[in-house]
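I have a small job for you when you get a moment. Would you make up a two-line entry for one protein for me to read? No commentary is needed, just the two lines. Write everything out right here, beneath this request.
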Amino acid sequence: MSSAPHDIARARKASAGFIVVAVLWILGALATLVAIYAIYVGNTTRAMAINDNAVVAEGLVAAGVELAAYRIVSAPKEARPARGQFALRMGRADVAVAFRAETARIDLNAAPKELLAGLFAVLGARPDDAGQYAERIIGWRTPSPAGAQDREASLYRQAGVSYGPRGAPFAHVAELWLVLGLPPALVERALPHLTVFSGRAEIDVRVASAEVAAAVAGMLPERPDRDLSQRAAAGPSGPPASAGTTMEAGDTTRVSVRVDFDDGRRLAAEVVILVRDFGEDPFRVLCWRDDIDGPPTPPARTEPRR
C-alpha cells in the first residue's frame, strides 16, 4: 500500500510532461502560422505597391499622350509639328515625352517596291536580294487574282510553310516576320523604320531616320544623299517636297513616353494616335504598347519540310 503515493506522483509527472510537449507543439504550430501570415502580408503589400505603380504609370502615360495630342491639335493643320518633345514632373515620377509624325516611317501597305528595296539595301542587303524582298512584301499585301493561279501562294506551298500570304494589307508590322524569304536579322533591323499607320507612300524626310532618308534618296538619283541628310537644318518648313516625299505631318503620330519613378522603377510606352475631329475626342489610339525595350519578338514559325 505504501507504493501508491509514489505511483500517483510518477503519473502526475508523466502527465505534466505530456502537457508541456503538447503546449510546445501548439506554440510551434502557432509560430509557423504567424510566419506564414507575415510572409503573406509582406507579399500582398509588395504586390499592391507594384499594382499601384502600374496604375499610376498608366495614368502618367495617358497624360503624356494627351499633352502631345494637345500640342499637335493646337496648331493649324497645315502647320502641325512633325515632331517634338517635352518633360514634366507628376507625383513621384519624371515623365519624358517625344512624338514624331508617322510619315517619318515607311508604310508597308503603301510604299512602292523601290522604296522598300532601298531600305533593305541601306540595311545591308545586296541590291538583287533587296528587290526580291520587296517583291515578297508586295506579294503578301496584294489580293489573290480572281480565276487565275496565285503565284505568290504557290511559293509558300513550295517552301513547305503552313500558311500563305495575307492577300490584304498588313495588320501589323510584326507580320513582316512571316513574309517568305526575309532574313530574320534584316527584319529586326527594318522594323523600327516601318509602320502600317501612315497610309501614305510619301516620306517626311524632315523627321525621318537616316536610314529611311537614304532609302528615299535612292529613289531620287537627281538628288544626292547629303541633300536629304541635311533636312533638319532647313527648319520647320524644310526644303521643297520632291517625288516620294511630303511636307505634311499627316494625321497619325507616334508618341513615346518614359516614366521614371523615384524608387527606381521605370516604364516605357509607345502609342500611335490618329489626330482628327471626333467630336468630343480630338484623337483616337491606334496602337498602345507598354515596356518597350526593342523591336517586337518574332512569332513562332513552321520550319519548311526537307
